[in-house]
Amino acid sequence: MKIKKSSLKQSFAKLSETKVLVIGDLILDEYLIGSVERISPEAPVPVVWVRNEKQTLGGSGNVVQNLTSIGVNGIVFGRIGLDKAGENLESILLSNSVNKEDLVLLKSKTIPTILKTRIIASHQQVCRVDREEIVPLTKEEEAEILKQLQVKIKDASAVILSDYDKGYLTPSLIQSIITVCNAEKKIVTVDPQVSHFFLYQNIHIMTPNHHEAGKALGKKLSSDAEIETACREISEKLTPDAMMITRGEKGMSIYERKTDLFYHIPTVAKEVFDVTGAGDTVITTYTAFVATGMSIRDAALVSNVSAGIVVGKLGAATVTQSEIEEALRNLGYLDETT
Q1: Domains of the chain
Q2: What's this model's pTM, rounded to 2 decimal places?
Q3: CB-based contact 72:64 (threshold 8 Å)
Q4: Which residues, 6+ apart, have CB-to-CB distance to 189 below 8 Å?
Q5: CB of 278 within 8 A of CB of 310?
Q6: For residue 153, which of 20, 294, 63 has the smallest C-alpha distance?
Q7: Which InterPro entries would you find in this protein's record (predicted)?
Q8: Fewest C-beta in 10 Å: which of 69, 105, 161, 235?
Q9: Quick check: helix, strand or coil at residue 312?
Q10: Can you give the three-state secondary structure of 190-216, one letter per residue?
Q11: What's the confidence (pLDDT) of residue 274?
């Protein structure tokens, strides 16, 4: 399985002209990084001496960050609170090349910005502190979002639903978004939640991991045969163009519904340092490259290689065009004769 170098270069050239609309749950990720030299006298827990701290985009924000990293412009729909975390999240989005007019943020007076604080010592996560209130959107808020979507969808090449089940993507909003996108002939890709699994009908592709897909179907998915059966079962209910199931150390499997073809792509990760955000990288790179005209199979291969790169980095990391090309070449996936 190889990608023609000419095809890759054509897609690279088109990425800067591509706009992807990201809808989902915005999260602010905070990292407190330090070292442990003693145990607390107050309780048998380590004392972390914080030497550095940073805030980055999490949730659907990490999808936006991944788009920026490969040179794609993003249109962002999400919810934040009227608080310092919300101000910081908006500022980081703007610094990630998102234009002010492409930032459609619902600013809640009652719901705080979701903030996840990870405490890291000697490259190991000691603990995580979550601050969030999971409250579904009101019907009035949904109506306003759909009104804005009708305008912004015109500029988008594709739409990503990044569902973390934090209240923004309600069942009715999910279905309305897909209806709007199909009417405008825009492809929709979904990083799903099990609780909403069978709501994502008539989309281009869904990218659950094998645990999520198995839980949705009520069975364990391990072998290629089990994965293939699951893809067909899900596709019968949702009628997507394709299904992708990511499988950890076993890589990923892709199913094209219309041709009934499967591709089982082995993992390329040499060292897994942190799996945070790997799913975001998969759906981002896949969507962006398909939007440039790349085939389902080739875009899946690019997304698999991209995930293999980011799991070797700390935190919700991203990948670049040059890293993708280098990895494809080093792994023997790049056909340089064309």
Answers
A1: 3-25+74-110+135-335 (3.40.1190.20)
A2: 0.92
A3: no
A4: 158, 159, 160, 161, 203, 204, 205, 206, 207, 283, 286, 287, 290
A5: yes
A6: 20
A7: PfkB_dom (IPR011611), RfaE_dom_I (IPR011913), Ribokinase-like (IPR029056)
A8: 105
A9: coil
A10: EECCHHHHHHCCCCCEECCEHHHHHHH
A11: 47
Q: Which amino acid would we find at residue 299?
A: A
* Chain position carrying tokens 């398909």: 290
Residue 145: partners with Cβ closer than 8 Å, 6 or more residues away: 77, 104, 106, 137, 173
Q: What are phi and psi of 73, to 5 degrees?
A: -80, 145
pLDDT per residue as tens digits for the range 92-117: 999 987 899 999 999 999 999 999 99
Just list the catalytic residues: 280
Two tokens at 70?
A: 């490969």
Return the DSSP state at 153.
G
pLDDT in tens, 188-233: 999 999 999 999 999 999 999 999 999 999 999 999 999 999 999 9
Which H or E run contains 129? strand 124-131
Residue 215 in contact with residue 231, Cβ under 8 Å?
no
- List % helix, strand, coil for the chain (3-state, nearest 5): 40, 30, 30
Q: What is the CA radius of gyration of the chain?
A: 20
Residue keyed to tokens 């990630």: 96
At 277, list the tokens. Answer: 């955000």
Of 273, 337, 265, 335, which is closest to residue 304 (Cα–Cα)? 265
For residue 86 the two structure tokens come to: 């919300």
Q: Which of 199, 135, 209 is nearest to 165 (CA)?
A: 135
338 in Cβ contact with 39 (< 8 Å)? no
Distance CA 260, CA 258 (A): 6
CA distance 281 to 289: 12
Going by pLDDT thresholds of 50, 70 and 90, the confidence category of residue 277 is low
Residue 193 is encoded by which pair of tokens? Answer: 């939640």
